[in-house]
Design a protein that fits this description.
alpha+beta; 7 helices
Length: 228
């Protein structure tokens, strides 16, 4: 396992929501928390411009990046003609960290930071997971997307249950055929924590990181079986 974990937040980009509005709302939340989770005491990045000829803008979060890694925010070009119902048109945030370096502050991440970031970025899905596991899943995800015509690990489905997860109402319906309330009911007492958050469900399977690969696979299989 790589030892690098990621906080991943995904928002359905809205052509009627200016990038500046979304950015300001989110960095206000980021400013509440000190590194390695947030930007408290650090320079707050300005609203990005999309360069001519480009379809996205990136905000680098250098202070949050472990050596050799990259944390950032990406915003998509706002246009009804461009944006489609697929995760490749999402705004998203990636914050990479090393669990061993975070130490006692992992509790803050799971209990406070992650839920606040989900609400601040208006996520339809979010997760905390091992970057190496995500990379290992990639070829299979692409294969399934091509064979089914669905966004199987984006707006239509959930390919991997991670140590921490968030699914909004629409993703819960598309991925599992369940409401967030029903997901919470089925997982109550079966995972470390499950609760309603906004118009979705927060599922914390394991807050003690890092996880051995076999434990990762066990969690994915057991939680998925409960949601069938």
């Amino acid at each position: 396992m790589s030892g690098i974990y990621e906080i991943e937040l995904r928002h359905r980009a809205d052509p009627h929501e200016p990038i500046g509005d979304r950015h300001r709302k989110f960095v206000e939340v980021m400013a509440r928390y000190a590194p390695p989770w947030g930007l408290k005491g650090e320079e707050i990045p300005a609203v990005p411009d999309i360069p001519p000829g480009n379809l996205s803008a990136t905000v680098k979060l250098r202070v949050l990046s472990p050596r050799g890694e990259r944390s950032y925010i990406s915003y998509k070009f706002r246009s009804e003609k461009y944006l489609k119902d697929n995760a490749q048109y999402d705004d998203f945030v990636i914050v990479r960290f090393k669990p061993q370096a975070a130490g006692a502050r992992l509790g803050e991440l799971f209990n406070d930071v992650f839920p606040a970031y989900i609400e601040g970025f208006d996520c339809y899905r979010a997760g905390i997971g091992d970057s190496e596991v995500k990379m290992a899943d990639w070829d299979r995800v692409v294969e399934l997307c091509n064979s089914t015509g669905k966004d199987v690990d984006g707006r239509d489905g959930v390919h991997r249950i991670h140590p921490a997860n968030y699914f909004d109402r629409e993703l819960s319906r598309r991925a599992f055929g369940l409401t967030p309330e029903k997901i919470a009911e089925r997982l109550q007492g079966k995972v470390e924590k499950v609760s309603m958050l906004g118009d979705g469900v927060l599922v914390i399977c394991r807050s003690k990181l890092p996880l051995p690969r076999e434990e990762y696979e066990r969690i994915d299989g057991e939680v998925r079986a409960l949601l069938k």
